[in-house]
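Hi P.,

Sorry for the delay on this. The queue was packed all week, but I finally got your sequence through. Input first:
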Amino acid sequence: MEHISPYELNDNLFSLLDREWMLITARDTETGKINTMTASWGGFGILWNKPVAFVFIRPQRYTYEFTEKAEGLTLSFFTEDHRDALKLCGRISGRDCDKIAEAGLTPTRIGDRAAFAEARMVMSCRKLYADDLREGAFVDPALLSNYRAKDYHRMYICEIEDMIRA
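Then the structure:
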């Protein structure tokens, strides 16, 4: 594993999210348990003079509970060989089973944050800001069709503190 700067990343960030997907993983520091979920929405940029990731999690997701308790989270990216694991982690809840084991993933750590040994790249992130999306803030009302149950995502803005590439 090699530590790299976010400024050295040569990957297409749009492809990372939309085509390759990622696992958002957080650890409950009280219990030591971890949970993960597949995501294909998010973003990257510079905010407050820091490299950041924008992560969106719906409140009913089990990972939301972990993310709320944690100081930070990881974003793990995989090769196409792990597509089935990503599909499984997006389809079933860690409340109901050990989906990490079922997906065949090996938990590892980056500092005090949880990630996966199989990932080709991991971003270790510290939460800086969180806020809920609100119905009245949508400028394009057509986007509300993503929220028929009014279960608006919480947005986390996270500083990318460390990146590791396999």
